[in-house]
Amino acid sequence: MDVDFPVVYRALAGLDSMAQAAGRCNREGRLDGKGKVVLFVPPKPAPPGLLRQGESASREVLSDTSGAPFTRANFAAYFERLYYGCQLDKADICGLLAADGSELAVSFRTAAEKFKLIDDEESLPVVVRYRGRAGESVEIDQWLAMLRRDGPQRWLMRKLQRYTVSLRRGQALALLARGDIEGILPGLYVQVNDWLYDPVTGLNPELIQLRPQDTIF
To answer: How much is the pLDDT for 16?
Structure first.
């Protein structure tokens, strides 16, 4: 995002994430002096997974230094701690692409089928009725009606892709059970309740009543 702030507050996270946030402070150099970046420890740890691993790695690295946090040495130590013990090739892609002295031993097709840069097995797609410009929601309703009637078509799915968001499987199934979304195709869901998606605050699967003035952009 091309944004510039005089002051940046960032919760403790991965060293790379904190450095990225710091880069938004006085990005354009418009201040007379330097901007201000405040790193703070939140009351609760990050969610389990890579976010918490990054936070833990940053704690270990920063506890061993009293100087500038974003140095090359600190980043080297951070990534070493972050990836230590991590299983970075769960699908054994490297093994499938190992020739072992024979070109026929390289399993290109199996590797291609198993490779996923982003694991989306725990997410489900939901088509939202975005109401940005006049008539846009009407178009979405028309496309959804065509999808129900005629089934999926390449051009139609491309149109709807712009209005499709991914939800965690647990969130999507909870909304489905409450009737807030419904299945329109196997593996594809659509928004039912109008309040579920706001053009300013976005998708609201947690039933939290959000107001634009309460949201920080």
So the answer is: 93
